[in-house]
Design a protein that fits this description.
The complex is a heterodimer of chains A (204) and B (126). In chain A, 29% of the residues lie in helices and 24% in strands. Chain A has 5 helices and 7 strands, in the order βαβββαβαβαβα. Chain B has helices at residues 15-22, 55-63, 71-78, 82-94, 113-124; strands at residues 40-43, 69-70, 98-101. Chain B has a 3-stranded antiparallel beta sheet with strand order 2-1-3. Classes of the chains: A alpha/beta (204), B mainly alpha (126). Chains A and B meet through β1, β2, β3, β4 and α5 of A and α1, α3, α4, β3 and α5 of B. Chain A: GO terms for molecular function: ATP binding; GTP binding; hydrolase activity. Chain A: This is ATP-binding protein. Chain A: InterPro entries: Gliding_Motility_GTPase, Gpn, P-loop_NTPase.
């Protein structure tokens, strides 16, 4: 097709030279997702909202909606200008199970994800891990080392979360910009490894 | 306590739902133009044109003037739901006020290694 862009993305033919990519930061409530985004974002993190019942229903009018109970779900996100051609968005995804519909839309086209875990509540990360495993979204686990929390080593965390050996686990303190940066670097290095291995093995 | 002749009180919180879709004239919309939360849009018509449009359209065009913004950023800046912003942005694309670029669909094949390298370099240089 004559007007097809090289990456087959939808868009105006005259809009060239700039593209957006996204990474997700998932994890349980209060684990520090927004803190991590804040630590590395070039803008003060923004909050956007989506309406619970709007998703996937294909609604084209709101007739009768006044009788429904609706909820909105908030998403915090930050932005990093990578270079003149690429903008990276980081989305903190709501942790609770009932918001997983939101993860679905968010995970489409995401380069990868960080599952942020708290060793005092490791079970809060199970949902996110299961979700990304089942969707085939590559992810790493970052363990936020809260003050006063018992320090576990990587092997213990890996066992407790039952994650595959190839999934990186990184200890971090998301309040620290350098530490948060290292989490993203670790994720991107992992994504490169996965992509290179996939290309070599011809699995894509 | 109710008084005769007083309208029935609302039984729910109408705020966050009703107002955003009032600006789209009740349309929740299908996702026209395949708009994604990180679809970038830029205004391409001169500023003078904005005066003739409804306020929300004008707000969007002003914030996207000369620099691309994502649907997510527009939604956050306007305090409108993502679904409502998609409808308004779709209108502005159709009317030729905005141009846009959506991320490639996930089915487009192997991850772009050059892109990943660029993102990695960018994050390392933060």
């Amino acid at each position: 097709m004559a007007f097809e862009t090289s990456d087959r993305s939808a868009g105006s033919p005259e809009m060239t030279g700039v593209r957006a990519v996204k990474l997700l930061v998932a994890g349980g409530f209060g684990v520090g997702k927004t803190t991590l985004v804040t630590a590395v974002s070039e803008i003060k993190p923004l909050r956007t909202e989506e309406r619970l019942s709007a998703i996937g229903a294909g609604v084209d009018d709101l007739t009768g909606v006044e009788r429904k109970t609706t909820t909105t779900v908030a998403l915090d996100f930050g932005r990093i200008t990578i270079n003149s051609e690429v903008v990276l968005y980081l989305f903190g995804t709501p942790g609770q199970d009932r918001f997983w519909f939101m993860w679905k839309e968010l995970s489409v086209g995401a380069l990868g994800a960080v599952v942020l875990a708290d060793t005092r509540r490791l079970e809060d990360s199970f949902g996110a891990i299961d979700f990304f495993e089942s969707r085939g979204t590559p992810f790493i686990v970052a363990v936020n080392c809260f003050d006063g929390a018992e320090i576990y080593d990587e092997v213990e965390v890996r066992q407790a979360l039952a994650i595959d050996d190839h999934v990186p686990v990184q200890l971090c303190d998301v309040r620290d910009r350098e530490s948060s940066k290292r989490v993203l670097v670790r994720l991107l290095e992992y994504l490169m490894t996965v992509a290179t291995a996939g290309a070599a093995a011809g699995t894509w | 306590m109710k008084y005769a002749g007083e309208p029935e009180p609302f039984e729910f919180e109408p705020g966050p739902l009703i107002r955003p879709f009032a600006v789209t004239r009740g349309r929740a919309g299908k996702d026209l133009h395949e708009l994604d939360i990180i679809t970038l849009v830029v205004a391409v018509r001169p500023e003078a044109d904005v005066a003739a449009l409804d306020r929300e359209y004008g707000d969007i065009l002003r914030m996207c003037h000369q620099r691309p913004l994502s649907i997510a950023e527009i939604s956050a800046k306007m305090g409108l739901l993502l679904a409502a912003v998609k409808v308004l942005v779709s209108d502005l694309i159709s009317s030729g006020h905005l141009i846009f670029r959506s991320p490639p669909p996930p089915t487009s094949g192997r991850p772009d290694i050059k892109l990943l390298q660029a993102v990695l370099d960018g994050v390392r240089n933060l």
